[in-house]
Amino acid sequence: MSNITEIFGTNVFGDEEMAKRLPADIYKSLKEAISDGKAIDRHIADTVAEAMKNWAVEHGATHFTHWFQPMTGITAEKHDSFIEPAENGKVILSFSGKNLIKGEPDASSFPSGGLRATFEARGYTAWDPSSYAFIKDKTLCIPTAFCSYNGEALDEKTPLLRSMEAINREALKIAKLLCGDDVTKINVSVGSEQEYFLVDKAVASTRPDIIFCGRTLMGAKPPKGQEMNDHYFGVIKPRVAAFMADLDDELWKLGVYAKTEHNEVAPAQHELAPVFTTANIATDHNQLTMELMKKVADRHGLRCLLHEKPFAGVNGSGKHNNWSIATNTGINFFKPGKNPEENKLFLLSIAAFIKAIDEHQDLIRYSTASAGNDQRLGGHEAPPAIISIYLGDALSSVFYDIANGEHHESGGKIKMNIGAEVIPYIKKDTSDRNRTSPIAFTGNKFEFRMPGSSDSIAGINTVINTIIADVFSEYAKRLEAADNIEKEILGIVKEAYNEHKRILFDGDGYSDEWKDEAKRRGLLNLPSTPEAIPYFAKEENIALFEKHGVLGRNEIESRRDIAFENYCNVIHIEALTLIEMLKRDVMPAISKYEGRLWRIAEHKASSVYKNFETKTAEKLAEYNDKLFSLCDKLQEAVEETAAMKDLSRSALSYHDNVLSLMDEIRTLCDKAQEITKREYWPYPAYGDMLFHV
């Protein structure tokens, strides 16, 4: 491994390079424009572009691209070389401020939800100067937003940037009242923990379901799964350790703050967590992380699976989104301090958070809804689809006491005695961890545990920023009009707790009792994506996003339609893949082994010795007949569902009809696999994939 401090950020056109290569006045103007969120002058852009091009060429770059995040879940890029024709058939290298600021990719094939017709192909990419340019595969990548000819957002980044401006605007009012006028900006801080699976590339390449769907559509459970909990935080295997070391090097070169890596609970599952950074940069870094995980895995003869539930019966993969906000002077809104009951900014911020999440459960659920995540939520340590907040005993008692007019003594952190004299006393955190909680307070931030491992974190953070900004806007008006700010804050805290305490829950989120209790409390339970999507375009939600300039009606309705379409496409592809696997491989394999058993039985004289062959053959024949029938039913269901004109009806049909048939087929396939001789079964077993890296 290279020296970290020497390689970190070497492929990034960051502050150090800009300060070194730009004239002092240009560098200062650029930094001020970024800090204040102002448009960058063309003269500044030309100077920056020239310096950026020279740096990139020195590092081996031959092309540039506007790197953007369309609504496909992955990034996009169109490469242009730096060359321009010169005299005598020669070329020069050129890159202007115009090239830097704006690009014009063909937008016709990206999801737009009707914002533009196919024949209206024009789209624009616009430079996001707050996220540093970088070099990848000999190409200068310029992080950009992506919009239509009419200015509507066609990407994930634009709404995120707008939401960051919204929360900066509204939270700044609160901060100036409580922290002083030296506060000039509010920064949204995000850290995203990324879970993933690593399997052998050669093994995975023999399974059509992994190739086309990113998950297994069938597979009998191995004798051992995660029951022993021996993989979690276990010794990292040499092949995986080599992958992780290589991945770290690649990420560090790109300025990604990759910090923590370990084995996760399920066999073959792992996690990477970065240091926190600004929300839009964290989003860029997470997209790069997912891309590089796949590339680096390929180099090591591995396949990285980012699907939320690649294997049944073991943990799925999530992406824990840790969110907080702080002033430019370093004050964290969610840091309780030694006496949280006296920290008015902290109390007000927690109250705002509780109110926002309770009032907008539907948006939180929508922002984490996908076909893959539906497979994961509600089991194997993934949170349920019912939204709730876990504050921890200490913080819950603070709010309870304030709401009931009682004096609370926090006493700071408690020292915990481990029980062995050689080990020193350690400070005990004020909150434990609840693995079943969708949202948990974890010291000075909130951890959102619902997002799926393959999701962009832009969506969830856009929603969080917007709903918190809305409550801060309301609270700021109340504080500005109050005669006694401290008294008003205590009133707000009491009001928030009493009116929204239904969203607070510290028990077992998996239990049936919680489902019943949540229903009594009036909390939403939206277990599937088709149920969650319509809530996004409710009139009150459209009004919310329009109020803060984050999304317009057309943008919201288009995103709703894209979400429906994506869901339908995913299930459609999975169903066709399953049908192909059944017809070409599984049913012929079962039939072949069944025939072999009948032939053996015929040559045995005594019926006593025919028992195994005949009974197994009969059972396989029964399974195959049922699979044949279900395969035809699945084909019909797919065709009928795909023909539906209404996307919402189609999505519900894919969920209720197509997926239910796929589950029936899977159950039969897994039963057949369990009694089929290994050499006859056409695909590698779960044990071959989960335990052989």
Record keyword descriptors for this entry.
693 residues; alpha+beta; Ubiquitin-like (UB roll); Creatine Kinase, Chain A, domain 2; Four Helix Bundle (Hemerythrin (Met), subunit A); 9-stranded mixed beta sheet; 7-stranded mixed beta sheet; 23 helices; 20 strands
Give an account of the 3D structure.
With 693 residues, this protein is an alpha+beta fold. It folds into 3 domains: 4-155, Roll (Ubiquitin-like (UB roll)); 162-551, Creatine Kinase, Chain A, domain 2, CATH 3.30.590; 567-690, Four Helix Bundle (Hemerythrin (Met), subunit A) (Up-down Bundle). Helix content is 49%, strand content 13%. It contains 23 helices and 20 strands. Strands 10, 11, 12, 13, 14, 15, 16, 19 and 20 form a 9-stranded mixed sheet that branches. Strands 1, 2, 3, 6, 7, 8 and 9 form a 7-stranded mixed sheet that branches. Strand 19 and strand 20 form a beta hairpin. Helix 11 (344-359) packs across helix 15 (458-481), helix 14 (393-403) crosses helix 16 (485-500) and helix 21 runs antiparallel to helix 22.
Structure in a nutshell:
With 693 residues, the chain is an alpha+beta fold.
What is the strand and helix layout of this fold?
Blueprint: H1 4-7, E1 12-13, H2 15-21, H3 24-36, H4 42-58, E2 63-67, E3 79-81, E4 83-85, E5 91-93, H5 97-101, E6 102-103, E7 123-127, E8 133-136, E9 139-148, H6 157-179, E10 186-200, H7 201-204, H8 208-213, H9 238-253, E11 258-263, E12 269-274, E13 277-278, H10 279-299, E14 302-305, E15 319-327, H11 344-359, H12 361-367, H13 371-376, E16 389-390, H14 393-403, E17 414-416, E18 426-428, E19 439-441, E20 446-448, H15 458-481, H16 485-500, H17 512-521, H18 529-532, H19 539-547, H20 553-602, H21 607-642, H22 647-675, H23 686-690
Parallel strand pairs: 2-9, 16-19
Antiparallel strand pairs: 1-8, 2-3, 4-5, 6-7, 7-9, 8-9, 10-12, 10-13, 10-14, 10-15, 11-12, 15-20, 17-18, 19-20
